[in-house]
Amino acid sequence: MKPLKGTRIVSLALNLPGPAALMRCRALGATCIKFEPLAGAGGDPMRMYKPAAYQELHLGVRVLEADLKTPQGQAKLAKELGKADVFLTSFRPSAMGRLGLDWKTLHKRYPDLSQVAIVGGEGLNVEVAGHDLTYLAENDLVGGLDLPATLFADMTGSLLAVEAIMSAALLKKPSYQAVALSNAASYAALPRSWGLTTADGAVGGAHAGYQVYQCEDGRAAVAALEPHFAQRLCEVAGIDTSGKNMMLLSATKLSLQRWFAKQSCQTLDRLALKHDLPIYTMPLVK
């Protein structure tokens, strides 16, 4: 299915959220054109610090270079915007204004064009500097001194941008939509705000069947959350299941810790398959 087939997107968005959104739109059938600064001026930073990621993000995307501070660059962009359905950007509003690309000017010049603007914050914070890490920290998604395992705000923001693009394409009515990465982080953080992933939450550490356990030669991610999975896990591990709320008891967690510590990853894989248990093993790399 290609729901965006026939939709033409022109993008100025650099780094990760914009190109990730464009990658998804391309997969959904859109025709995607992206403008980057001249290579001599640095181009897209992603091309420099992770070329392989840049290549994957831009498969099937027509990439053009232009200096938008020059009449030649502006003319090159104008030519593509005149044929576009959606304009995807990731600059601050003040920067767009300096380029003569604010929404009021764009809408007057291209009355059939919609714009999806990926920004950092919203309202009074729209111009405040930030990045994925700061938006996650703002929403209590950064623990200790360890960096998050992935760029949650950027990737969630990219999907919200795709949602906005699909909305514009579906409604077929010119619109301006801002997608704030701070809001993307806030959306990703909802399970935490609901108490699901806090230390006393079922998927935050309180439930003995939803843990990462050390095993004989690696680790095991165990997601035996539902009662039938939890009971089956305890039966396989030889743990009494007669107690009420036994999966919330520290004694159950301790018993499972001891049991997993004696099992190899290979044994756990076999048991998971045999007993239909949600367990994924992570052997130590030798």
Task: Give the structure's gist in a few sentences.
With 286 residues, the protein is α/β, with parallel strands linked by helices. The chain has helices at 17-27, 45-49, 51-57, 71-81, 93-98, 103-109, 132-138, 152-171, 181-188, 190-193, 202-206, 227-237, 250-261, 265-275; strands spanning 8-11, 31-36, 62-65, 86-89, 114-119, 176-180, 210-215, 218-223, 279-283. Strand 7 (210-215) and strand 8 (218-223) form a beta hairpin.
CATH class of the largest domain: Alpha Beta
Structural Rg: 24 Å
Largest sheet: 6 strands, parallel
Uncertain runs? none
Arithmetic mean of pLDDT: 95
Query: Largest beta sheet: what is the strand line-up?
Result: 3-2-1-4-5-6
Order of helices and strands: EHEHHEHEHHEHHEHHHEEHHHE
**Helix vs. strand class:** alpha/beta
Tell me what you see in this structure.
By secondary structure, the protein is α/β, with parallel strands linked by helices. It has two domains: 8-192, Crotonobetainyl-coa:carnitine coa-transferase, domain 1 (Rossmann fold, 3-Layer(aba) Sandwich), CATH 3.40.50.10540; 202-283, formyl-coa transferase, domain 3 (2-Layer Sandwich), CATH 3.30.1540. Helix content is 44%, strand content 16%. The protein is built from 14 helices and nine strands. The two termini are 43 Å apart.
